[in-house]
Amino acid sequence: MLVVAFPLLVLVTGRPVAIKFEHRTSKGCNYGAPYEWQVYNTLSGIHGVPRVHYKGKLGEYYIMIMDMLGPSLWDVWNNNSHSMPVEMVACIAIEAISILEKMHSKGYVHGDVKPENFLLGPPGTLQEKKLFLVDLGLATRWKDTGTGEHVEYDQRPDVFRGTVRYASVHAHLGRTGSRRDDLESLAYTLVFLLRGRLPWQGYQGENKGFLVCKKKMATSPESLCCFCPQPFRQFIE
Length: 237
Prior knowledge:
Layout: E1 3-9, E2 16-23, H1 35-43, E3 52-58, E4 61-67, H2 73-78, H3 86-105, E5 108-109, E6 118-120, E7 131-133, E8 140-141, H4 169-172, H5 179-195, H6 208-218, H7 221-224, H8 230-236
Antiparallel strand pairs: 1-2, 2-4, 3-4, 5-8, 6-7
């Protein structure tokens, strides 16, 4: 399994883009082209989702060429002494909610909301302060395309999708993804950017996922947001 992304300069236009290589044996390519391509076919170009310029196959690899972006929120946080001013996090919250709203309106939930998957626009451009959400490989449909209703509920405790630190409690329990799960993961992301740490960090071993889930369920909004402005606690509640 191999997934690689790196910058490339398109000589015809002079516009920098990113090219993502994914080997045909990768997990998302079991039935042909990467599953992520299907999601981008629906979402590419909407508010906060980078545009895809080309998708194709080159030898043993599937390739996707898309807009080149700037640093992730994780990079910004990490390069800023592991902290962010509350004003910046508030702006991130507003923009992130708007992006998720547009994505949800198209019938998808992202499934892996975290600082590493929010990127700023290219430095030195008019979009350098604009927020983008990337990595759609775990996105799933929350809305049935036939009925327009929420997809049928299911629970598979042996299946976990996402990132342990930021995943919703329902994701830990293997439940069908919903819009609420994206918002819960966003809440954890915002608190992390503000406080620099979440109460369930530090667990190790085979039971890490179980212990993190248990801690999340036991942590009240008041405790989680004890050093955050009131609006953040209201959002989590």
